[in-house]
């Protein structure tokens, strides 16, 4: 059966702006890989991330370089050895999962061995701003069960306290995006513990996090920028209590599943997270996250518009994807 494949660029406006310690963005610029065979089409979406040296152009180049082999019938298992972890491999890998499911008359859920996929409580992200701005943002979403709060400044105590006061009943994850320092780390950890924060993501820069092995963790600490793939997870065990698995970091659902299983073997808690993308990017992650301890798949909620059909978000929950979207 003849295959056709292509990569395309799409842009989706963000509702307002999305701000973390490294800067702000007003649109989600994504790359979609589509692979067609017969009457079936598989799709995968990725979000290039400059923090990891990726651009739209570099990711398009990576995908276009592999597509001739995909058209010739390359299987998903081979992809892992031909492309490095990252956004480009994610788009191709997820497109192949989707295509395989459609060709075989099975859902990806069934191919993964899941008997049922359930709705998941997902975090909603509060962008970085002044304490007053963040408190106002939080108040609008204080009805949600789980909030993820972007921090990463030299003085985040006032932000943490303002957010907790605005959402006294919500579980809260703090994401410092590598923005804390050796000098303020312990203070911010203690404030977080006092405020009942449930998890702290990547407080120190990747590669400069040795201190985490030598100090108490009054709040569990999660590796994000420090953890990209399965290899090397054991080397982080003395520093981190949890691992944030993102398809765009791992390079697709295939590697992400291996990464999750290895993290469990090593005793980590597991978060499944995302970049700011559409429902097409979130769909495989919803299946990956079925047994996760923390779920952060709110990308479409941050957009001014999403794909149609998209994922269904109901109060604090995200529902499993319909096959018309993915899988």
UniProtKB/TrEMBL annotation:
It comes from the Bacteria. Its EC number is 5.1.1.-. Pfam families: MR_MLE_C, MR_MLE_N. Residues 131-222 form the Mandelate racemase/muconate lactonizing enzyme C-terminal domain. CDD domains: L-Ala-DL-Glu_epimerase (cd03319). Keywords: Isomerase, Magnesium, Membrane, Metal-binding, Transmembrane, Transmembrane helix. The keyword Membrane applies. SMART domains: MR_MLE. Binds 1 Mg(2+) ion per subunit. The chain crosses the membrane at residues 266-289. Its cofactor is Mg(2+). The keyword Transmembrane applies. InterPro entries: DgoD-like, Dipeptide_epimerase, Enolase-like_C_sf, Enolase-like_N, Enolase_C-like, Mandelate_racemase_C, Mandelate_racemase_N_dom. Belongs to the mandelate racemase/muconate lactonizing enzyme family. This is Dipeptide epimerase. It comes from Rhizobium aquaticum.
